[in-house]
Design a protein that fits this description.
The protein has 471 residues and is α/β, with parallel strands linked by helices. The chain folds into two domains: 261 residues, Aldehyde Dehydrogenase, Chain A, domain 1 (3-Layer(aba) Sandwich), CATH 3.40.605.10; 192 residues, Aldehyde Dehydrogenase, Chain A, domain 2 (3-Layer(aba) Sandwich), CATH 3.40.309.10. It is 41% helix and 21% strand. The protein contains 16 helices and 22 strands. Helix 4 crosses helix 5 and helix 4 runs antiparallel to helix 7. The longest helix has 23 residues. The relative contact order is 0.14.
Length: 471
């Protein structure tokens, strides 16, 4: 075990292991000791000291470091994918895709760092100025604290630590408690690399105590968090004077216009609503459909949904695996039951086998139902009939969330209007709002968060501008 992957402050605490149980098989797949406040403070002090060396290191060394991680991760792709499936129940086909995307994210971080630069400034542009040599550049903030969720336990870690490290910072990572072994294996690739900067990355395991210590400490200059609105709200109130980057989820919506390709739209909407068992921040939750094509689309959506295989995450053709835990299943069932009691109708789904919850399509819903107005984080999607684009965009925007929306249409004017009308961080035309390319800026408005991910945009979050004037 490496010294900067913390497993408790004494031998007694190391023996008190927390077991991780596979959501599908119910077998113990990994174990970890919960860190203390003292462990977390130690990790932060180590990072603070290491940040001197990371700042002094060359970009070339840091790029070689990430290249080495990519090389070794590529050699262990199947093992990492299996670990993801073991810990969070992600279907193995999608776990493999996550590993591939993680590799791309690291490569993109290197490219983004190479292209990161400042500018010269014309200080004699105004009468009060004069000719000087003036410019600005970006330098690392020092220490970055990162807190990551369970639904993408590898790639979302990469989206935080790869840009932070390549831009010259030291990092303290608190990975999700649900996938400690995934984070451990990934972190080891950085820590054991021959190009590693000593102590530049530390990992602390735990939940509220560890997270609160990271948030409240004055050592990190940036805190990057992906998780719930409730926790994000606490962070903003307690973080103090530091940069905070928050990705807090969403309530993704799309509009199916009467000009759309209905078969294509239904197939993509089924994919976007139910991939990763709906446990995605940009999982499609609300589908607004023009009343002229509503019945046809609803039938097509039912057909496409019922094609999806639900079952073991270890089978290559499984599309929908288990929910993360019993609490998630109970919440999904209760929200659907509440909606049915209030008049909603289930078109398909609404059944479960253990933690496998079948993809569920709801109709005759109202705007005040939880499955419409709150983030469900389960394989549930609702169809809402609308009379026009104007009604659809009004309902889509009537949400405290604003992460990503989409539209299916062949009307160019409507497309142009939607790009500006949608109150969210990202829009997608003729595909699902669940579409995300790791190279793009990613982040929302309103309660969906603050700041942007995507390697080049994350580097902006993890660096500060320094202005220089030479007279």
């Amino acid at each position: 075990m490496k010294a900067n992957i913390f497993f408790g402050t004494n031998e007694e605490s190391r023996e008190e292991l927390t077991n991780i149980v596979n959501p599908y098989s119910k077998k113990v797949v990994s174990s970890y000791p919960i860190c203390t406040k003292e462990d977390t403070l130690k990790a932060l002090k180590i990072a603070q000291k290491a940040s001197v060396d990371t700042k002094a290191s060359t970009i070339a060394q840091r790029i070689d470091w990430l290249k080495d991680v990519v090389k070794n991760l590529s050699k262990n792709k199947e093992d990492i994918a299996q670990t993801i499936s073991d810990e969070v129940g992600k279907p193995i086909a999608f776990a493999r895709i996550e590993v591939d995307r993680c590799i791309e994210t690291i490569k993109l971080s290197n490219i983004a760092m190479i292209n990161s630069h400042g500018e010269t400034i014309n200080t004699d542009a105004m009468p009060s100025g004069k000719k000087t040599t003036a410019y600005w550049f970006r330098e690392p903030v020092g220490v970055v604290a990162c807190i990551t969720p369970f639904n993408f336990p590898l790639n979302l870690v990469a989206h935080k630590i790869a840009p932070a490290l390549v831009s010259g910072n030291a990092v303290v990572l608190k990975p999700t408690p649900e996938a400690p072994l995934t984070a451990y294996k990934f972190a080891k690739l950085f820590i054991e690399s021959k190009f590693a900067i000593k102590d530049a990355l530390s990992v602390v395991y735990g939940d509220v105590e560890v997270g609160s210590t990271l948030v409240e400490s004055d050592i990190p200059r940036v805190l990057s968090f992906t998780g719930s609105v409730q926790v994000g709200n606490i962070i903003t109130k307690t973080a103090g004077i530091k940069k905070v980057a928050l990705e807090l989820g969403g309530n993704a919506a799309t509009f199916i216009d009467k000009s759309a390709d209905i078969k294509l739209a239904a197939a993509r909407c089924a994919f976007g609503a139910f991939i990763n068992s709906g446990q995605v921040c940009i999982s499609l939750q609300r589908i607004y459909v023009d009343e002229l094509i509503y019945d046809e689309f609803a039938n097509a959506m039912k057909i496409e949904t019922e094609k999806l295989k639900v079952g073991s995450p270890y089978e290559d053709d499984t599309f929908v695996g288990p929910l993360i835990n019993d609490e998630a299943l109970v919440r999904a069932k209760s929200w659907i039951q509440n909606a049915i009691e209030e008049g909603a109708v289930c078109l398909t789904g609404n059944k479960s086998e253990a933690l496998n919850f079948y993809p569920t399509v709801m109709t005759q819903v109202t705007d005040d139902m939880k499955i419409i107005c709150e983030e469900v984080f389960a394989p549930i999607v609702s169809l809402i009939k609308v009379k026009s684009y104007d009604e659809a965009i009004s309902k889509m925007n009537n949400s405290p969330y604003g992460l990503q929306f989409s539209i299916f249409t062949n009307d160019l004017k409507q497309t142009q209007s939607f790009i500006y009308d949608a109150s969210c961080g990202g829009v997608v035309i003729n595909d699902i709002p669940t579409l995300r390319f790791d190279i793009q800026p990613y982040g929302g408005t309103k309660l969906s968060g603050i700041g942007k991910e995507g390697p080049s945009f994350a580097i902006e979050e993890y660096t500060e501008i320094k202005s220089v004037v030479i007279c």
